[in-house]
């Protein structure tokens, strides 16, 4: 692998990690500053997300307003290439508030939650193009004592006929 490719891979990681830091700090402006105009952010299987800088800014503000106080991520693995970062993480938190971006329509249970999340972040020309995060809802719901059908996939209208297929 050439030094140029190695540097490109490090840049992809820096963009992804900067985006995550901004989101967790509650700074949607800083997060969106790292994105392309056509950015897409989606959490699956809920289907909650947005496409385009303005819509993503609004979505991230909603996420930031509903982050659990003790949210932690423990990386289990990371794979990086010239365009993507794929992280497998153990996510832990107390379900101390409603999480419309993760568990839409589910009131806070007060229970301790631990689940796996796999995120695929795509970066193009130094800007974040997409973040798709697949949450292990089965484990999450069971750990909170909730029935498997407590969350249903959202119907998301993104305009111009876009939908889940456009997120890949």
UniProtKB/TrEMBL annotation:
Domain of life: Bacteria
Domain SnoaL-like: start-end pairs: 19-128
Family annotation (Pfam families): SnoaL_2
Sections of the chain in a coiled coil: none
Protein name (database record): Nuclear transport factor 2 family protein
